[in-house]
Amino acid sequence: MLDGGRRYDRVGDVVNTAGGRTGLGLPDSELESEVTAALVRVEDRIVESVDSADPFVAEAARHLLDAGGKRFRPLLVILTGYFGKPDPDRIADAGAVMELTHLATLYHDDVMDEAKLRRSAPSANARWGNSLAILVGDYLFAQAAELAANLGTEAVKLQAQTFARLVHGQIAETIGPRDADPIGHHLRVLAEKTGSLIATSSRLGAMVSGVEEPLLRALSEYGETIGIAFQLSDDLLDIASESTQSGKTPGTDLREGVPTLPVLYALADDDSSPDAQRLREILALGPLTDDALHAEALGLLRDSAALKRARQTVHGYADRARDALTALPDVPARTALAGLCDVVADRSS
Q1: Domain with 31 in it: what CATH number?
Q2: Alpha helices (H) in 29-179, listed in sequence order
Q3: How many domains does the chain have?
Q4: Among 10, 53, 90, 172, which is most exposed with the fewest C-beta within 10 angstroms?
Q5: How far apart are CA 323 and CA 316, in angstroms?
Q6: Is 80 exceeded by the pLDDT of residue 46?
Q7: What average pLDDT does range 15-40 have in this prediction?
Q8: Structural domain includes residue 324
Q9: Which of 151-155, 232-236, 261-265, 343-347 has the lowest average pLDDT?
């Protein structure tokens, strides 16, 4: 099935924006073939779910779907199903639930952020306005919930709990750290806004395949931790990459005043060197819309101890995710999940 106009030729294509890597450490061609076929089934299920008798609703609901994406969450659903006895139809439903929920949050996020672009295409809110973008996001949540109902009450409950965490994370991000440590606050927001959905993806695929609770807990821990690492690595790419490797123009977060981890580390740094002081001075200004200041801050940040510390943090989360896998049976899917840890760590280096 097509994703943004292309077919999954390799499972690695699901993370083809992740540092240029084209493979996920899949241990054999048979597993890669099976996972690729499962991704096709998930994609078909998503397309069926977003369809509507109303042409406008169908077009708007497919807007971000057609723009592409890594399908990272369905991939985790599929791989974790191998720790049990996966049923192709239930795995397809579970993968679609996760991707539809993710897509719905993107519609809402773009309204919150007043974003103009998403995946190099006009955002839904830029094209149709905030109200319709919110409603389309709600429609996708509803379609995800209907699919979750096919999987049983535990799946519905899990999706609802995950949605609550996503909303808590968005509220916390909107309100800001208040009296909390800005770095700790930022990491908690990432855990709720990004980590929670990836943790649920890792849990749901195994859950619908009959995996017992102790292993489900290990997979949830893996998913949340690798999810935080994945988002942090995206933030680092926004600073360190010379290209659009992260899916946006390098330095976009700086220009928009988004407080990513390297920026927070730089602001908290007590280094008295001229470069560190100058970097703190510029970053304290907030959104860097002035081209000269933006270029200066980006250059200083790329050479800073803060960026090195942020890279170490990403590697720390990737290592924690890999450690969570030790509780799982040594099957090819575990090797693939460990390979994702390497992909995430390497893309931020």
Answers
A1: 1.10.600.10
A2: 29-50, 55-66, 72-81, 88-113, 124-128, 130-150, 153-175
A3: 1
A4: 53
A5: 11
A6: yes
A7: 65
A8: yes
A9: 343-347
Distances (CA, A) of 249 to 84, 202, 240, 343: 41, 30, 11, 21
pLDDT at 288 over 60: yes
Domain membership of residue 67 (yes or no) is yes
Distance CA 132, CA 129 (A): 6
Distance CA 232, CA 226 (A): 10
| 91 is a domain residue | yes
Asked, for residue 2, whether it belongs to a domain, the answer is no
3-state SS class at 115: coil
The whole-model pTM stands at: 0.88
**CB contact at 8 A, 349 and 21:** no
Section 105-124 average pLDDT: 74
103: containing domain: 11-347
| DSSP bridge pairs for 7 | 2
Taking each helix axis from N to C terminus, what angle separates 55-66 and 88-113, rounded to the nearest 10 degrees? 90
- Comparing 298 with 120, the larger pLDDT belongs to 298
